[in-house]
Amino acid sequence: MSVDIDTVKRIAQLARIAVSDEEAQGLQGELNTILGWVEQLGELDVDDVEPMTSVVQVEMKKRQDVVSDGQIAADIVANAPETEDHYFVVPKVVE
Amino acid sequence: MTDLTELTIAEARDGLTSKKFSAVELTDAYLAAIEAARGLNAYIVETPDKAREMAARSDAQIAGGEARPLEGIPLGVKDLFCTEGIHSQAGSRVLEGFKPRYESTVTSNLWADGAVMLGKLNMDEFAMGSSNETSAYGPVINPWRSSSNNADLVPGGSSGGSAAAVAARICAGATATDTGGSIRQPAALTGTVGIKPTYGRCSRWGIAAFASSLDQAGPIARDVRDAAIMLKSMASVDAKDTTSVDIEVPDYEAAIGKSVKGMRIGIPKEYRIDGMPAEIEEMWQRGADWLKDAGAELVDISLPHTKYALPAYYIVAPAEASSNLARYDGVRYGLRVEGDDITDMYEKTRAAGFGAEVRRRVLIGTYVLSAGYYDAYYLRAQKVRTLIKRDFETVFADGIDTILTPATPSAAFGIASMATASPIEMYLQDVFTVTVNMAGLPGIAVPSGLNAEGLPLGLQLIGRPFDEATLFQAGKVIEDAAGSFEPKPWWS
Question: What are phi and psi of B151, to 5 degrees?
Fold first, then answer.
C-alpha cells in the first residue's frame, strides 16, 4: 500500500501540522519507505491471536469517584500562551 | 582528597555517612565539573542554586542521623521528566517556556530519598531518536572518542544526555526513559549501565508521554550496583498511574554478588542477524563464556517472532505518539504561532514546534489510525506483540532464567553520519532492545569491553516480568569479568 501526495496532505491536515508542497514530497517518500517495511507483518497469521493488553495479568484498577483536588485554576493556566480570568484565550471560533 | 566526582553512588553514600566530606562539597564538585563539560551539551539547564539548597538539607539530615537511601547524591534528570518550576521541555521547541506546577512521581521519589538535582539533561525530541540528534537543543557529544581520530561521536538516544553525563562524571547517576531502547542503547554506546524495568515498575505520571503502552523510566548509572540503588528509589506503585503495578519493590542491591551457579541463560539464535559486525558477535560469545565460567548453564533458544518486533513497534509507537502529542496545540502550554483562524494557529504552531522526526512519526501514527486502517495496522501490531510475548513466555516456562544478547548492532557512530540514510537505518539501532518493550519485560545493558577503536560495547540481559533482581545478579558477573573503563577527559 503506498500513499500519494494528496494522502500525505490529508494526513497532515488531520494531524494539524502545516506542510509545504516540498515537505509533502519528501514525506511521501519517507512514509512509503516505512509503510513498505512494516508490510512484512502481513506474513503472520494473527486471526486467532488476542491483542496484547498487559505484561502480567492484572485486575483493572478503579478509584473512588470523589474529588481529590481542585481550586488550582491559576496553576492550570499558568503555562498558557494567552489567558484571561483563568480562561484560555484562543482565536475567535464562533462568528 | 580524591576528586569526589570519581566516586560511585555507593562510594559517595559511604563517604557521606562516615562524614569524610559533606553533601555540599560533593554537589559543588559536580557543579564545577558540569561547567567544565559544557562543550558536551549534555545539560540543557543547570540548577546550581537548587542543588546547593538540596545538598544543605542533606547535610542537616546526615548530621541529625537521619540519612535517607540517596542522601546527598547528585543526579541529572532527563528533560522528559516534569520538575516543578523548572524547565521541562522534552527536548522540544513546542514546549517552549514550560515550567510545570507539579513534579513527576519518579523524581518525587528520588528527592524524598534525599537525592540532589543538578539539572535537566538533553535528549532526542519527545524521546524519538537513537542518536540525540533530534533534540531542539542540538546534539550531545559522546565523551568517548575513537583511538584513531578526534571526530565527535553520538552518545546514542534518546537518553543521550543522561548517558553522556554519567560517562563524563558530571552526575553520579541519571534518570532516563526507554520506549524502544532509549536507556539501553545510549548506555551501551557510552560504557554505562542502564536498566529498563518491567512495564509498570515505575510510575509514568509526570513524564511527557511518547508511547504509553511502551514507555518506562529507569536509571543510567556507572555500575550495576548504582543502577540497583537508583531503581529501588525510582520504582513505586502510584494511584496516579493505573498501569503501575502493586508488587513490592525488592532490595535490588541484595542481588549483587550472588553467584549465578546453575542459572540457565538463553542464547537466542534469531539475534544473530545478517551483517552483524564480527566485533559484536565476538563480544556476545565472550559474555556467554564469562557467565559459563561463573557456573551458569548456556542454553540455545529460539524466539521466532523477533524480526517482527521492530516493524510492529513502528506502528504502535507512532500511533500512540500521534494521540499523545495532540495536546501540543498552542493553547494550554508552550509555543503558539498565531494564524488566520484557530486551525491555522494549530497547524502553524505544530509545524514550527515539532522537529522533522517528530512530524514524521505523528504523520505515520495519524495514517495508521485513520479511518479504515486501524485493524490492518494498529490492531495487527498489537496482536504481533502477543506473539512476541509468547515467545518469551515459552522459554521462561522451559526454565530459562535470563536471556543474553548484544545491546546494540554497533559501537557509537559519528555525529551527522546518518544524515542522508533512510529513517529505517537509524531505527535498526534498536533491533536488539525493542522486543523487550513490546513484551513489557525488564532489560539491562552492561558494558562488556572496548572494540578495536577503543569504543565501548554493551551486552543486554532480558528477564522475566518483575525479576529485575536476576538482571542485576547476572549483570554484575559480566561487569566483574569485563573490568571497568572510562573515557579520557578531553572535554575539560
Answer: -65, 140
Of B200, B312, B423, the CB nearest to A41: B312
Residues of chain B contacting residue A93, judged by C-beta atoms under 8 Å apart: 341-342
Residue A50: closest C-alpha in chain B: B383
List the Cα angle B146/B453/B424 in 5-degree steps: 80
Express each pLDDT in B231-253 by its tens digit.
999 999 999 999 999 999 999 99
Looking at B22, B88, B131, B158, which residue is catalytic? Answer: B158
What number of residues does chain B have? 492
Q: Which of A11, A33, A49 sits opposite B363 (nearest CB)?
A: A11
Average pLDDT over residues B433-440: 98
User: Which of A19, A28, A32, A56 to probe by mutation at the B interface, max B CB count within 10 Å?
Assistant: A56
Q: Active-site residue B78, yes or no?
A: yes
Q: Dig out the grid coordinates for B241 from the structure.
A: 498511574
Q: How far is CA B489 from the centre of its chain?
A: 23
**What is the fold of A5-42?**
Histone, subunit A (1.10.20)
Of B331, B377, B386, the CB nearest to A50: B386
| A49-93 confidence digits (pLDDT tens) | 999 988 888 888 888 899 988 899 999 999 999 999 999 999 988
* Mean pLDDT for the stretch of residues B276-287: 96
DSSP codes joined into one string, B192-245:
-EEEE--TTSS--TTB--S-TTT-EEEEEESSHHHHHHHHHHH---BTTBTTS-
User: From 3.90.1300.10, 1.10.510.10, 3.60.20.10, 3.30.300.20, which CATH number describes the B1-492 domain?
Assistant: 3.90.1300.10
Residue type at B492?
A: S
For chain B, domain boundaries = 1-492
Tell me which of B78, B120, B196, B476 is the catalytic residue: B78
> What are the domain boundaries of chain A?
5-42
Number of H helices, E strands in chain B: 15, 11
Q: How far apart are CA B472 and CA A42, in angstroms?
A: 38
* Residue B235 in grid coordinates: 520504582
Would you say B430 and B273 are in contact if contact means Cβ atoms under 8 Å apart?
A: no
Nearby residues of B24 by Cβ (< 8 Å), 6 or more positions away: B52, B55, B56, B59
Task: State the DSSP string of B344-392.
Answer: HHHHHHHHHHS-HHHHHHHHHHHHHHSTTTTIIIIIHHHHHHHHHHHHH
Closest approach of B450 to chain A, Cα-based (Å):
33
What's the whole-number average pLDDT of chain B? Answer: 97
Using alpha carbons, select from B408, B401, B451, B430 the residue that is nearest to residue B291: B401
B2 falls in which pLDDT band (50, 70, 90)?
low
pLDDT digits 0-9 by tens, B363-408: 999 999 998 999 999 999 999 999 999 999 999 999 999 999 999 9
Which chain A residues in 2-61 lie under 8 Å from chain B, judged by CB atoms?
Answer: 3, 7-8, 11-19, 27, 30-31, 33-35, 37-38, 40-41, 44, 46, 49-52, 54-56, 58, 60-61
Measured distance CA(B474)–CA(B287) in Å, rounded: 11
> What's residue A69's pLDDT?
86
CA distances from B80 to A12, B83, B103, B287 (A): 25, 9, 12, 33
